[in-house]
Specification:
Layout (H helix, E strand, L loop, with lengths): L1 H13 L3 H15 L3 H13 L3 H14 L4 H13 L3 H14 L4 H13 L3 H14 L4 H13 L3 H14 L4 H20 L1
Helix pairs in contact: 1-2, 2-3, 3-4, 4-5, 5-6, 5-7, 6-7, 7-8, 8-9, 9-10, 9-11, 10-11
């Protein structure tokens, strides 16, 4: 019975029926006690339906039992990021990147959390690390450009937006931000 219930939870998870995952998974925990696999499925399901506070409870339980599970720390960090608890997000995402230093999604989420904390230097370093791993990562160029623009360096920001556009000529956000910087640069030239 326990095995068939676990299989049922997993099957619903695979097809993306997260409401059923929550229903059956929570019943599973009530009937059979703690199970880290079910905790994980519940955490992801809660996150996918936008209930990150509930997701965090499950991911934290897993973190206590499996302190070397980088994917769990990534999920925990993203759930904190989703509810704007940026300091906790950074702590969890730093742990994920310590465990897997060259993991681009982990580093990208960390860079975003640092940016939200207005730790622009830390965020820039994380985005630059991504580019050392994968030089064609458009979003990293874009985010570096955004940060440089925020820091008052529109000339270099334009270069980063151009690099993003060379890789993806349809990256609309890069066009928009580049145009904003060009207006700033044009205004600076006009004042001289």
């Amino acid at each position: 019975l326990m095995f068939s219930t676990l299989k049922e939870v997993t099957d619903y998870f695979k097809v993306g029926d997260f409401v059923k995952v929550l229903e059956i998974g929570n019943n599973f925990l009530e009937r059979f006690g703690e199970d880290l696999n079910v905790q994980y499925l519940l955490g992801v399901a809660y996150s996918r339906i936008g209930s990150d506070i509930q997701a965090i409870k499950h991911f934290k339980k897993i973190a206590e039992e499996k302190p070397l599970d980088s994917n769990n720390f990534y999920n925990l960090g993203n759930s904190y990021l989703n509810i704007c608890h940026y300091k906790q997000a950074v702590i969890s995402l730093k742990r994920a990147t310590e465990l897997e230093p060259d993991n681009i999604p982990y580093t990208y989420s960390l860079a975003l959390a640092l940016k939200r904390l207005e730790d622009y230097q830390g965020s820039l370093e994380a985005f630059e690390k991504i580019l050392r791993i994968e030089k064609h990562f458009v979003k990293a160029y874009f985010e570096i450009g955004k940060i440089l623009s925020l820091l008052g360096n529109p000339y270099v920001a334009i270069e980063k937006f151009n690099q993003a556009l060379m890789l993806d000529s349809k990256h609309a956000f890069s066009y928009y931000e580049k145009a904003k910087c060009q207006r700033i640069v044009g205004g600076n030239l006009a004042e001289r």
